[in-house]
Amino acid sequence: MRVPPYNRDPGWQRFFSGVVLGAIVGWLIFMLMYGVTLEKNIGDLIKYKEEVKSYKNRIHILTEDNDKLKEEKDQLKIEDFKISIINHEKYMLNSFSRSSIIARITEDLNDQVSKDVASIKDNRQLLIKVIENKSYALDDKRYYFEVDFLYIDTTIEMDLLIVKME
């Protein structure tokens, strides 16, 4: 048996040439759509890589800032006291008496030196009560104080009022 010759019949020639041209056109359309989709995906991929890079950079910067803040927070310690008695004229305290009372108050507060500022701020009422609940003796007189102003930083600043004198 022999395969009939289709090269002589124009109907079959048109059919095969249509199949070949259709395959070529279909392949070209497929390549065009694939190229457009691939180009879009590559553009998205580049954009996402840039976003990831910027986010990593932002995370790095924020982590460094957080570490610096932690170090600074850990470094803030109480270093000194600045105490003043506001109404010393009313009780006729001279500068020597004032400085000796301030020295005694400072001795009571010396255990707060080199403690964290944050822990002192949390326990500020305890610091106030240490001063207000104790009497300070000088020249056969006892002085009781009230804290008028308290500022806590690396230096604790406080203004005291003499409440009573016995």
TrEMBL record:
It comes from the Bacteria. The lineage of its organism: Bacteria, Bacillati, Bacillota, Bacilli, Bacillales. Residues 80-160 form the Sporulation membrane protein YtrI C-terminal domain. InterPro entries: YtrI, YtrI_C. The chain crosses the membrane at residues 15-37. Residues 45-79 form a coiled coil. Keywords: Coiled coil, Membrane, Transmembrane, Transmembrane helix. This is Sporulation membrane protein YtrI C-terminal domain-containing protein. Signal peptide: none annotated.
